[in-house]
């Protein structure tokens, strides 16, 4: 078996820095997408900590976009020779605050490459460290994990492996329709052109899914939004999130969680059949 991780080990340590402004129009669009009042945000307003993810987009030129809608590999991200690429998890800390109007920078570094063999073939996990700073002071630190996967076999059917059930002991719950407008608006905000989120023919024929795929980062975002409604106003100090299985546009997203215990709150997302899709742990400041 080809040792892809060793082949690309020289990419570990590669860095890139991107600058962006925490702009008022972007923040108000995010608020509108979440059915919040956009006019509650003004220049100087602190944004919810987890909203950092809609900034520092990859502004690849049209000629730099690959067949899948992602920027082509080989610039910052290594050209790992597996065609499918998806976000699978993150660990984040919020040592500072981002405010509307801040001029911020994001430094990203390739931190690790690991190869595994899964039911669907070769998997290569890429870890990337991100630090978002304002005035030289860190506001967000993140370790993000992305997986590269083999193309599906020509005769492959949609994956239907034994699902992990959602936890049984939920104290609260909420539901969202995974409608195409919601997914489109989030993809537009984050400048995400991955075709699995809007091109059903591509998703079926080339990536082996039954239809358009819910944006995993959006799933995590909605879980965190619902959890924070139950956090009694405490400041979010950090979170970890893991995607377990894909969800699909047109279905129901079921979010639930447990009441906060000490400094943490557990929340998760599942599909209509009760299969776990994502899990999150939120960590708060000032808890006894």
Automatic annotation (TrEMBL):
Origin superkingdom: Bacteria
Residue span, FAS1-like dehydratase domain: 77-141
Molecular function GO terms recorded: (3R)-hydroxyacyl-[acyl-carrier-protein] dehydratase activity
Annotated InterPro entries: FAS1-like_DH_region, HotDog_dom_sf, Mitochondrial_HTD2
One Pfam family cited in the UniProt record for this chain: FAS1_DH_region
Record protein name field: FAS1-like dehydratase domain-containing protein
Origin species: Ramlibacter tataouinensis (strain ATCC BAA-407 / DSM 14655 / LMG 21543 / TTB310)
């Amino acid at each position: 078996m080809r040792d892809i991780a060793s082949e690309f080990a020289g990419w570990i340590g590669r860095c890139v820095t991107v600058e962006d402004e925490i702009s008022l129009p972007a923040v108000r669009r995010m608020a509108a997408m979440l059915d919040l009042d956009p006019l509650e945000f003004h220049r100087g307003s602190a944004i919810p900590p987890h909203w950092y993810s809609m900034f520092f987009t990859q502004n690849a030129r049209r000629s730099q976009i690959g067949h899948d809608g992602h920027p082509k590999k080989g610039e910052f991200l290594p050209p790992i020779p597996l065609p499918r690429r998806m976000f699978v998890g993150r660990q984040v800390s919020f040592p500072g605050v981002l405010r509307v109007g801040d001029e911020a920078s994001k430094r990203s570094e390739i931190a690790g490459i690991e190869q595994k063999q899964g039911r669907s073939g070769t998997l290569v996990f890429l870890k990337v460290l991100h630090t978002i700073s304002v005035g030289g002071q860190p506001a967000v630190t993140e370790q993000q994990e992305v997986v590269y996967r083999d193309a599906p076999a020509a005769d492959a059917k949609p994956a239907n492996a034994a699902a992990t059930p959602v936890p049984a002991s939920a104290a609260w719950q909420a539901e969202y329709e995974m409608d195409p407008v919601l997914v489109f608006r989030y993809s537009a905000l984050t400048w995400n052109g991955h075709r699995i989120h809007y091109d059903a023919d591509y998703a079926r024929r080339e990536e082996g899914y039954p239809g358009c795929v819910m944006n995993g980062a959006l799933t995590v975002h909605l879980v965190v939004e619902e959890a924070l409604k139950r956090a009694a106003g405490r400041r979010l100090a950090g979170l970890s999130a893991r995607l377990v299985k894909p969800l699909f546009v047109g279905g129901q997203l079921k979010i639930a969680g447990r009441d906060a215990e000490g400094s943490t709150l557990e929340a998760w997302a599942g599909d209509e059949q009760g299969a776990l899709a994502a899990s999150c742990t939120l960590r708060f400041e000032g808890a006894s």
